[in-house]
Specification:
426 residues, alpha/beta, 3-stranded mixed beta sheet, globular
Length: 426
């Protein structure tokens, strides 16, 4: 208490010293105490750190390839590029506002396309919301459905925004971990070996549980949840009357014969699921920032309330381009000419190249079943270099990545895939 009084005294002394002629003492005091007020809202406490910002800055500073963020180094398909060009030049009204909850041709094609996949009659006006990317859909869902004190189950490793979005909504994150099964010597680890423990998962559900966030294919492990695993999650959500927020932005990036299953397609789950998708991930055009949320009107009406009082409306031309792209894809869906068939065939070659590159420098990669992320076990390096510079409270894997970026970027071409390496705490 006395330290605070002293600080105020010194601050006031500075006010008198800096007071300019013609400036009232009252004004100086007002400015002083105004600056002393707490500026950030308490909902931001503890969430100011963002790994993508930190590692993006380091990648620029040390001139290394940033492999952390999820966007491709190849162009969108020609039909999608042409659709965007059409949106820019064909109809001048596409330069103006459209419907707040989505450009009608887009909500209509999303309802038709995903209605068939989910085996639901989807109303484009009641069951579809177009957002500023999947990120916008996630934020809108958390703000609409998570209340002060609600618990949200998050499966880890997880996409980094789930925790801060829960906290900003006033919720409490509750974590349950995917646990890798041991592999035989010389055998590659697969994302399929990472499993939820049914007993542990069940123990996380309480009377305070409001929602569970599901991400399949998972970022960063690349796990594609099987139908049996989804049925377990669905059973617990129904038993405890819990909402499922299902982040499915990588649903088209599935490899090796695995199948993506939407949890909303399981019996009894449409009524309690918000399914989130991304045009950026679907058509390799992340800069378009067009996403969507699908779900029952009983949930979606609350998302619409948040949306209309925040962004209100998303850019029209991007929505028009995505609508045309989905119309094209619907004509080719399931055929060799389908982009959703061609995309994973192209990306799995990148995956296999990265797996070989990481193995060549002594790391043990976890081969993803889906998405375009890949993690690797650095235990062997840790045994050889247990002490690395950095904050002792910072996880070893983060310190390892920073050390690699600062010190190893020029060592050899073979090491470049490690700069930076995706990380998950463990």
């Amino acid at each position: 208490m006395f330290r605070n009084v002293t600080a105020i005294h010194l601050h006031l002394a500075g006010v008198f010293q800096r007071k300019k002629a013609g400036t009232s003492l009252a004004r100086c005091l007002h400015q002083t105490f105004a600056m002393a007020k707490r500026l950030p809202a308490r909902r931001l406490d503890g969430i100011d750190h963002n790994p993508w910002v930190e590692f993006g800055k380091m990648a620029s500073e040390y001139d290394v390839v940033n492999l952390g963020q999820g966007f491709p180094d190849f162009p969108p398909p020609d039909f999608a590029v042409q659709a965007f060009q059409n949106a820019l030049s064909s109809d001048f009204m596409l330069n103006q506002y459209t419907k707040a909850f989505g450009y009608p041709p887009l909500t209509k094609i999303l309802a038709s396309f995903f209605g068939k996949l989910l085996e639901q009659e989807i109303d484009p006006l009641k069951n579809v919301l177009v957002t500023v990317g999947a990120y916008g859909a996630l934020f809108t869902a958390f703000q609409a459905l998570v209340d002060e004190g609600d618990e949200v189950i998050i499966i880890e490793p997880f996409f980094d925004c789930y925790e801060p979005m829960t906290l900003m909504a006033g919720g409490r994150p509750v974590f349950v971990t995917l646990k890798p099964s041991p592999t035989q010597d010389g055998e590659l680890d697969s994302a399929s070996n990472w499993q939820l423990d049914p007993t542990e998962l069940a123990s996380k559900f309480t009377s305070r549980t409001k929602a569970l966030i599901l991400n399949t294919p998972n970022n960063p492990v690349g796990k594609v949840f099987s139908k049996a695993e989804l049925e377990l999650v669905a059973s617990l959500c129904q038993q405890h009357d819990v909402i499922c927020i299902s982040d499915e932005v990588y649903q088209w990036l599935v490899y090796d014969g695995h199948q993506h299953v939407s949890i909303a397609s399981l019996p009894g789950m449409w009524e309690r699921t918000v399914t989130i998708g991304s045009a950026g991930k679907s058509f390799s055009a992340t800069g378009w920032k067009v996403g969507w949320a699908l779900g029952p009107d009983s949930l979606m009406k609350h998302l619409r309330t948040v949306h209309q009082n925040t962004v209100y409306h998303c850019p029209t031309q991007g929505q028009a381009a995505v609508a045309q792209s989905f119309q094209h894809e619907q004509l080719h869906f399931g055929q060799p000419s389908s982009y959703f068939v061609q995309l994973p065939q192209a990306v799995w070659r990148y995956r296999d190249h990265m797996v070989r590159s990481l193995q060549s420098v002594g790391l043990r990669p976890v081969v993803p079943q889906g998405s375009y992320f890949l993690i690797a076990d650095i235990s062997d390096f840790k045994s050889k270099m247990p002490d690395l510079p950095g904050d002792v409270d910072e996880p070893y894997d983060r310190r390892f990545v920073k050390w690699m970026i600062r010190n190893k970027q020029a060592t050899s071409e073979a090491l470049r895939p490690l700069c930076p390496l995706l990380f998950c705490e463990g």
